[in-house]
Automatic annotation (TrEMBL):
Pfam families: ARM_TANGO6, RTP1_C1, TANGO6_N
Span of domain RNA polymerase II assembly factor Rtp1 C-terminal: 788-900
Composition skew (Basic residues), residue ranges: 749-759
Family as reported in the entry's similarity comment: Belongs to the Tango6 family.
Name of the molecule in the record: Transport and Golgi organization protein 6 homolog
Example GO BP: protein secretion
Annotated source species: Gryllus longicercus
Residue ranges of every copy of the TANGO6 N-terminal domain listed in the record: 14-297
Length: 1049
């Protein structure tokens, strides 16, 4: 009962104190008129009467904070003193309530929590205390003045106070507020609304420069109004400084660090916070700037200081494209050194950034990771060695351990009981994820953090990929991104060395090799990988089978991740050069003999075999075909190499093995590729560089005269005539020969070869026959072909109607999933690509539709080509309508987008293309781009969230400045966007929906054009519909029935 009565008594006292505070801030009655002085005096009298206070100087609470009142004290200071007394008394009551309630039931709310009404009253009183007791005593430029906060501050007359009186008042109020901060309820109110004011007062008391004390003789010469610093005052100020500095440091370390950093930045640049035009512009004093910088450095050096700075400046839901200047400000603050030991500072920053990268994804937002990586990039430009040691070395430490198991750095996460585990799964996985964040996710074009920085561990990274690339491990995609970015950054010589290092284990300067005799990768229990110790006697055996598997692994990496084709083409050309440059025996290697090599060493024949296998697999790539067409010099070198290697064998071979001879097939394939390169260049607008092909004129003549294979002789003769006569005399059978050889079956080589020879002879004789006989021969020949062969033959015809028919048939075959067409999809794609350069618009549009039909097979290639044609199409002749063709290409793009997965990265590429098209000089193209943009947004729904800001900015800009038709299209985008988002509109658009609604409402009410009003009305109806469904969702009339028992949970 005693405890209960005590709590009741304390609650009653707290209620009386709150009533007194209400009296202090009570406004004047409506009927009465008086100045602020009279109103404050009346309220002070009522409050003191309520609390039974007769003499303020006798109050212990005011004596503790050294707050006194004299007879000449103004009403404002009396008001501040009474308010501080009440707040300190409330703090004591709340402390007693909290201490007495510790042993009670914790399910109820604590009794020391302030009500909403009490919090409101205390906030108002704190504003009066700060405005009348603290701000008038601050030096100009320290903190934000009252004139910059309130427009009516000029009506409040300044008090004429001495310097010592200002100091005593400022110190007393500061002590009072710090004492109130001892209780959480009052501290939360002070920190939320007056943290900057309190820090400004503490900075002035602790760090403002003081006058030196003067002697008695010097003080006699000074005037009476001038402040005199005596030795006693000097000692008093020094004692106060020591006390307040301790309070300052302990206070700011207890407060949420982003709040502290934000207020320090405001104090450092308070001159820029001029909110009222009438207030004077006063720069912060230099001592305050130095103090803020020192405190900021201390905050940054504390644990998670960099994260606190990012949170202080950047919004948690910050949009990178919305305000890039904030990110640059953060990077500049972090990377600027203000300490005497830059190395120690950078080392601390690197450790914090590593901690941020290693934390879980929910702990730090993407914007914080991005800023952290940018900081590392800037520091690396200044101190590359320091970053390599303290950041990159720690980041890639698990991979370094694979080459040096005795690496001195310890892994704290390593399981002690597993002595065979060198690098744990968690440690290795975290390293790979962090490397992916630094070098892939947050790395921009031209970044100083190039992939070459992890070249020392590139070989070990490839060994890890070789272990996991066929598994469902979550590390596969990240390792693929790292490797493909590393390979894309290499030039020719380095790529060649890297290829030999990856496959054959050749050493490279600066690249660490994996110690296969001591360590090996192993799969972990959570989908990652770890490094385990293995004890192997002797050297590590390298078999041909393992090298072939590594080659397959490298091809898998390139085929799945090389979207640009750079690595594919560079590797192909390097392999071609190395094959042609090395001296290899002219005798053909039998596959059985080569594959039987299982010994430790890697012979030159094994390297040669693997190189040829990779070349044959890479040659099917579309990127290789484009490269050969643009630069056939590499093909000529390979042709000369093949001829030098197999010439003697071909001259001595008989016709009996024509269809199955590997040397004949190699040379025939090369000659047909040369023929296709000549014919493709002929179809294109650029002229053929005949000087390149002149190098093979004599070898072709030699093959035609010496080789016994009739088909090879005939093909070489036709190419020879084409080169010598500069395409004046051409062999029309070149394309047909290519088509026949491409579809030739292995078991019917001799029969097909004889049929082709007969066909060529009939064609030669048919040129001199009558037209009827020629057409009869053609009809007979076409009857022997399947639909795919017939379409290919027509597509290679020079006549526009026949050529167009072939393109149309190929498109139909792809759409109907014809087996032959699907098997030769690379060839068909190449034909469609070549026809994009055709002069006739009919063929061009057919090729566009053909590419659209192949979008599911080659999405990256097809969409890249279509976007390029949509944005950069140029008319082939004066008769073409440029706008109509671009509009049709845009329609095809929209049709393609509907066949793709909504999560495909190609969708974002198309959105970027249409946003770029919205800036086109032609209004019709702008309107079409906006319409297409709306269709895609409608299809993908909430997945448009990543680019919603860019879309809305584009639409707002067009509505404000463009013509009526384009503005209507922009509003149509909003309608389609809202239809696609549906119930997700509020989650995706957020605060932007309010601005969109205002724009639409404004155009609907004030626009002079009916079309704009109609589109705005449709968009507003969509917003109303979504709002109604969100506020009043449809009730589902359903009842759940259970057969036996309801499910648990």
């Amino acid at each position: 009962m005693d405890l209960k009565n005590k709590m009741v008594e304390i609650s009653a006292n707290l209620h009386d104190l709150h009533s007194a505070l209400n009296m202090l801030v009570k406004p004047a009655d409506e009927g009465s008129k008086g100045e602020l002085h009279d109103i404050l005096q009346l309220n002070i009298t009522d409050a003191m009467k309520k609390l039974g206070i007769k003499n303020l100087n006798s109050l212990q609470s005011l004596l503790d904070i050294k707050c006194s009142v004299t007879g000449n004290t103004s009403v404002r200071w009396k008001f501040v003193c009474v308010t501080l007394h009440i707040l300190l008394s409330m703090k004591d009551c709340l402390k007693e309530l909290s201490s007495d309630a510790n042993n009670k039931d914790t399910t109820k709310a604590p009794p020391d929590i302030l009500s909403v009404n009490q919090q409101k009253t205390i906030r108002t009183c704190l504003q009066f205390v700060v405005s009348m007791g603290m701000l008038p005593s601050l030096i100009p430029g320290v903190g934000i003045s009252l004139a910059a906060r309130c427009t009516s501050a000029h009506n409040l007359k300044e008090e004429d106070l001495l310097v010592l009186e200002k100091y005593e008042r400022l110190a007393a109020v500061t002590r009072g507020l710090l004492a109130c901060c001892e209780h959480p309820s009052l501290r939360s109110l002070i920190v939320a609304h007056h943290l900057g004011d309190l820090m400004a007062a503490l900075s002035q008391i602790c760090f403002a420069p003081l006058k030196k004390p003067v002697s008695g003789q010097q003080s006699d010469t000074l005037s009476d109004d001038e402040f005199v610093m005596t030795q006693e005052l000097w000692n008093l100020f020094q004692q106060d400084r020591t006390h307040f500095r301790n309070c300052f440091v302990s206070f700011i370390w207890q407060v949420y660090q982003p709040f502290v950093i934000r207020e320090l930045l405001l104090l450092h640049g308070a001159a820029g916070l001029k909110r009222v035009h009438t207030c004077s512009h006063t720069s912060p004093p230099s001592w305050l700037k130095r103090t803020c910088i020192q405190l900021l450095v201390h905050c940054l050096m504390r644990p998670r200081g960099v994260s606190a700075l990012i949170r202080a400046i950047c919004d948690p839901n910050h949009d990178t494209g919305k305000d890039w200047s904030k990110l640059e400000t953060v990077v500049g603050l972090v990377t600027t050194v203000h300490t005497a030991n830059p190395e120690q500072y950078y080392k601390n920053i690197c450790s914090q950034i590593l901690e941020m990268l290693s934390a879980e994804e929910k702990t730090y937002s993407h914007i914080q990771i991005l800023v952290a990586v940018k900081c590392i990039e800037v520091i690396y430009k200044r101190e590359p060695k320091l970053i390599s040691q303290h950041f990159l070395g720690v980041l890639m430490d698990p991979l370094y351990r694979c080459g040096k198991p005795e690496h001195p750095r310890e892994n704290s996460k390593l399981e002690k009981e597993d002595s065979d585990t060198i690098v744990s799964e968690e440690y290795l996985s975290r390293s790979i994820v962090n490397m992916h964040r630094v070098f892939v996710e947050c790395c921009t074009v031209g970044s100083a953090l190039s992939p070459s920085l992890f070249s020392p561990v590139s070989s070990i990274l490839f060994q890890l990929y070789f272990k996991i690339y066929k598994s469902p491990s979550f590390l596969v995609s990240k390792v693929e991104d790292l490797l493909i970015k590393f390979l894309s950054n290499l030039d020719g010589d380095m790529l060649n060395c890297t290829y030999r290092n990856f496959l054959f284990g050749d050493s490279m300067n600066g690249v660490q090799l994996m110690d296969h005799n001591r360590v090996a990768f192993s799969f972990g229990s959570t989908g990652g990988a770890c490094v385990v110790l293995q004890r192997r006697e002797g050297s590590f055996p390298r078999t041909l089978q393992e090298i072939e598997c590594k080659g397959d692994c490298l091809l898998h990496l390139i085929s799945t991740r090389d979207n640009s084709g750079k690595v594919t083409t560079d590797l192909f050309m390097i392999l071609l050069q190395s094959l042609c440059g090395n001296s290899v025996n002219a005798e053909l290697c039998e596959p059985n003999e080569v594959s039987a090599s299982k010994e430790v060493g890697i012979s030159g024949g094994e390297r040669h075999y693997v190189t040829i296998k990779l070349l044959s697999l890479l040659s099917n790539s579309v990127f290789i075909h484009e490269r050969i067409n643009n630069d056939p010099s590499y093909l000529i070198d390979y042709f000369l190499y093949i001829l030098e290697r197999d010439y003697k064998y071909l001259c001595n071979s008989t016709e009996a093995v024509d269809g199955e001879d590997p040397a004949t097939e190699d040379l025939m394939m090369v000659i047909m590729t040369v023929a296709m390169a000549l014919s493709n260049n002929g179809l294109e607008s650029k002229p053929v560089e005949w000087e390149i092909f002149d190098r093979i004129v004599e070898p072709l003549k030699l093959i035609q005269d010496s080789v016994r294979n009739k088909e090879l002789k005939l093909l070489a003769g036709e190419v020879y005539k084409t080169i010598v006569t500069r395409n004046v005399v051409t062999g029309s059978t070149v394309r047909e020969n290519f088509t026949h050889t491409e579809s030739k079956d292995k078991g019917k080589g001799k029969t097909r070869g004889a049929q082709k020879t007969k066909t060529r002879k009939s064609e030669r004789t048919g040129r001199n026959q009558e037209p009827n006989e020629s057409s009869d021969t053609s009809r007979k020949y076409f009857k022997e072909l399947n639909p795919y062969k017939e379409a290919i033959l027509c597509a290679c015809d020079s006549s526009i109607p026949v050529h167009g028919h072939g393109i149309l048939q190929l498109t139909k075959l792809i759409t109907s999933e014809n087996e032959d067409a699907i098997a030769n999809k690379n060839i068909i794609l190449k034909i469609f690509q070549d026809d994009l350069k055709y002069e006739d618009s009919y063929i061009y549009l057919l090729a566009i539709n053909g590419l659209a039909a192949m979008s599911n097979m080659f999405p990256d290639v097809v969409i890249k080509l279509l976007i390029q044609e949509y944005l950069e199409y140029k008319p082939k002749n004066d008769a073409e309508n440029l706008t109509d063709i671009r509009l049709k290409v845009g329609e095809v793009l929209v049709r393609v987008s509907k066949t793709l997965d909504c999560n495909s990265p190609c969708i974002s590429t198309m959105l970027d293309a249409f946003l770029k098209g919205a800036k086109d000089p032609q209004p019709l193209i702008r309107a079409s781009s906006l319409s297409n943009l709306g269709e895609i947004c409608k299809n993908i729904g909430f997945r448009v969230q990543s680019v919603i800001y860019e879309i809305l900015v584009c639409i707002k800009s067009i509505i404000q400045s463009d013509i009526v038709d384009v503005c209507s299209a922009a509003i149509l985008v909003l309608t389609l966007l809202l239809q696609g988002l549906g119930p997700d509109t509020f989650a995706v658009m957020g605060d932007e929906l309010r601005d969109v609604y205002r724009y639409l409402k404004n155009h609907y009410e004030r626009s002079e054009y009916d079309s704009l009003k109609l589109h705005a009305q449709l968009a507003l109806e969509e917003i109303n519909k979504i709002s109604k469904e969100f506020i009043c969702p449809k009730q589902k009339l359903e009842k759940r029935l259970f057969i036996l028992d309801p499910p648990s949970g």
